[in-house]
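Narrative summary of target 7.
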Amino acid sequence: MKKKFLLFSLSAVTLGTVLSSNSGGHAAAGSTNNRTGAKGSIANCSSSSCHGTTGTTTAIIRIDSAGGVPVSKYTAGKVYTVHVVGKHSVNTSFGFQFAAVSGTGSAQVNAGTFSGLPSSVAQRTASGLSIIEQSSVISATSPADSFVKSFTWTAPATGVGTVTMYLTVNGVDGMAGASSGDGSGNVSLSLPLYTPPTTSVATVAEASSISAFPNPVMDELHLQMNETFATSTVSVFDITGRNIMNTVVAPNAAGSTTLNTSNWVPGMYKIVVANANGSNTISVVKQ
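Modeled conformation, tokenized:
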């Protein structure tokens, strides 16, 4: 990878440190760089002024509510956990930039606030936006070719419409003077503002239930739903937040359906079953 790094420094001291290093990851290249894809971004990590071959690193954004339940909409003023995930087939050093905005184009503004930043992660400002990025190179943990960093996002106190989250991740090979082995990835996630259901629908949703067996599971997982769940969307997420399955099911007369889990990697999964009446989430373990 090049000695010139991708992202920001928080101070002149940090800048001197990362520019003299050749260990890798998104790091400081100056005080104005924004590669997220949001307002004011210079070219994302596929540009010649950066480093990395675009599309070779997987970037994932997952937003969880209390209890670790993945969400696809947000409620004004509510607190969520953001998980940013990076994965490369070979490289084990990473850096990233993340932003949450409302509006479009040059009219984009910050949407919400951040707190609870973990080690190796910091917040700064660029293009008038709050940017969350690594403050030092992030090493892959488990599995050996990926990382997960999590922090708190408080949604805007008043509804501002759809919030768009942007993430760019760079996975580097640590080779000084060359970028051919580096890889980058970019992704965005749109979160519409949640509109509460009518009282009647809310009551039905609260009464809904779901169970899964056997748990732990090996080859087949049986979902038992009550009568309020007719035709439903079933989404399955692995421990990193990656969506590994989406299917539409119509439970039989007994309110049950079966998922083939034979090709799931052993570990923990969250299953979200949803339809117009509401949604339910359950955790299962694959042996």
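The radius of gyration is 21 Å.
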